Amino acid sequence: MRSSGSIVASTLLAAAGFAACATPALAQTTITLFGQDYSVERLNYSNAIRVPRNNPLQTPVPFNESEGIQWVGDNKVLMSADDIADFATNVADNWVIEVQLTEVDCQITGIAGFRTILAQSPAVVGYDLNPTGITVNTSSTGFASGGGVVVAFGDGRLYGYATQAPGAGTQLDFPIGSGCATSTPATCAIDVSLRNSNLEDVAFAPVGTNGAFFTINQDQPTVERWDALTGEFVSEFFVGGAIPNVIPLSAAKGLAYLPDSPLLPASLRRPEGILMVAFDDNFPGLQAFDLGGNLIGEEALLEGAVITGAPRLDIAGCPGNIQIESLTFDPATGRIFLNNQGSGALCNYLWVLTPTSYSCSTCPVCPADFDQDGGVTGADVEAFFLAFESGDACGDTDLDGGVTGADVEAFFLAFEAGGC
Asked: Fewer C-beta within 10 Å: the chain N or C terminus?
């Protein structure tokens, strides 16, 4: 991130749809993290995404050096960048965009397009402050509730913006209902600077009465918890090299909340969810913590030696090392997205890690509950025979690749046992 003390005004440009662009994924093989196997796809977001210049007749500019990422569902992520004007003239410097991913055969295979959420402009005071991280308040309470985007800026504050039309990009009040977004937008934010002097990322978790924002400070390094309604400091804990014998030498960069999911590694599952922290290129790695700040798992992303070890993720074509700046998680698929910051036009990678156990099939996991209503009843027999007699692939209950009489036997074995 770049530091900036400026509070030059800026605004959001809301596009009606997605810009046309596409790029294929570069296939890797697999990686094992926290005891779970993942298939790996590498996307180059700089090749795929071009943001417009202020003059529409000029060539659009590659979206380089992304800082933040946040899963928002429907194969979409928000991504932020704060240095775009370093690579071209007459273009906004700071961006938050919504990126559409493509999925084929249960794998993320490319980037299909994007929609602008925020872009620097003189219209709204408080935005020219470097969006180092982003999150979304998915709950019905607290700052930016109902799906607003909360952006961590280099001035040590959390600003909120609406993401949906009408009113997309409108700055949100904090304190809520104070009207400060209109009267004093530059200070209309949760101020975390007294506890976090080098704000790198933010994550929302729907926990407690009001929900919580967690912020990460790369200098300490620590994670802080803030009440999402009042903005009050709650607690903090150390991460990374501040823990003896754990991931030394690295700066803490990315932070994500991972809600509990059956597709999380078993060792990481907690009913309230967990936090995952990413570390930069000196010794890139991941750490997982419960919400009380207890370390529950870690993975280095280099083989063996610090700095000089071979990377565990494919960085072919990149002269630098892995530099995970941010990460996010899709609980429905178990996918972990690792966002590499890149350097100029190089190394702008998004690694998509999909559990090898994930299947996008709509067929029932257990044939006994064929209608997938949570119970084993006569309705499941009817549902099975509808699929079987039509030759539907879900009728292949013995998983031999065909729909035959043997599937009837396999179905009734599970049905009469009352489940799988």
From this structure: C
> How far, in Å, CA of 200 to CA of 187, rounded?
19
Q: How do 95-104 and 107-119 pair as beta strands?
A: antiparallel
Spatial separation of the C-alpha atoms in residues 223 and 235, rounded to whole Å: 9
Instruction: Give the closest residue to 209 by CA, choosing from 193, 191, 188, 232.
Output: 232
Instruction: Tell which residue, 146, 84, 111, has the closest CA to residue 337.
Output: 111
Terminal alpha carbon distance of the chain: 51
Residues paired with residue 131 on neighbouring β-strands, in sequence order: 153
**SS3 of 249, please?**
coil
Tokens representing residue 375 in the block: 């119970």
Which amino acid, residue 184?
T
| 387: Cβ contacts below 8 Å, ≥ 6 apart | 370, 394, 395
What's at 395, amino acid-wise? Answer: G
CA 392-398-399 angle, to 5 degrees, is: 70
127 contacts 117 by C-beta, under 8 angstroms: no
pLDDT value of residue 306: 57
Number of Cβ within 10 Å of residue 97's Cβ equals 24
pLDDT band for 23, please (50, 70, 90 cuts): low
Top-confidence residue, 3 or 206: 206
Ordered DSSP codes for 26-82: EEEEEEEETTEEEEEEEEEHHHH-EEPPSSTTSPPEE--SEEEEEEEETTEEEEEES
Residue whose tokens read 């390094």: 221
Mean pLDDT computed over 102-112: 91
What is the pLDDT at residue 10? 34
Spatial distance between the Cα atoms of 413 and 368, rounded to a whole number of angstroms: 8
Identify whether the C-beta of residue 223 lies closer than 8 Å to the C-beta of residue 255: yes
Cα separation of 412 and 393, whole Å?
17
Cβ-proximal residues to 320 (8 Å cutoff; 6+ apart), any chain: 281, 343, 346, 347
Q: Is the distance from CB of 341 to CB of 80 less than 8 angstroms?
A: no
